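During the no-cost extension, the postdoctoral fellow (Dr. R.K.) reprocessed legacy sequence entries with the updated structure-token encoder. One reprocessed record is reproduced below for audit purposes.
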Amino acid sequence: MSQADEIRCFVLERYVAPARAQGHSEIIIRAGDVHRDMGLTNAMPAVCNAIGGTKFEEVAGVTRRARTGPANGANVYIRFSLSKQQWSEPMTYRPREPAPKPTRPASDLMLTGAVALVSCVKSKQVRSAPARSLYTSAWFRKVREIVEASGARWFVLSSRYGLVAPDAEIAPYDYTLNNVGVAERRKWAAEVLEKLLPELAGEKRVVMFAGQRYRQFLIEPLRRHGIEVQIPMANLLRGEQLAWLSEH
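Re-encoded structure tokens follow.
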């Protein structure tokens, strides 16, 4: 099996198949995430070519809708629509499959005495609603249930509205930090911190349920203010996160 086939198999199994199983109609794949998750070295052009070509569309049963970013690089984003059909030929990724990522046992998830930050998700109600109810994905609902059951204070990290209290009513929106550049994410993080730090007066710990692009420029400023930052699902893919949440 060529390296390109290995990459296509990996992306199909680790990204496309779980998204299809969860009923998603589209998926956005970042080349840098694939490169990292496969443990590759200096193979970014190979990743971009493997998932950006028509062969991947054929074997995965997807249709490419958009591609953004440089010609080759970590920040190449490709958006695919997912058909209900399975891939056109059996493919199984084996040679480069990384070791299973460790998860934290239920007893290690300590929300008591912490402030939880939960990132927004794409799936939303069509009308304005309190932030805790606006987002409708299974992932968000599971996180909300765990956080609220613990009694911890929590906030939503909204790509559009910044730091939002769970009972604050907001309108639905179609915007994500996953598709914007570093400068815009830094600006968003600075605005979030401006609201968040007063809420953390007397607090020592923050637990983040958020993707890398939502937490990237929040972690170090919080630590500089003496706040311990915990990220329970930092190394888990979305399907693995759903399983982790179900266990907790």
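The domain at 3-82 is CATH 3.30.1370 (Ribosomal Protein S8; Chain: A, domain 1). Confidence is low (pLDDT under 50) at residues 86-107. The remaining legacy entries will be reprocessed before the final report is submitted.
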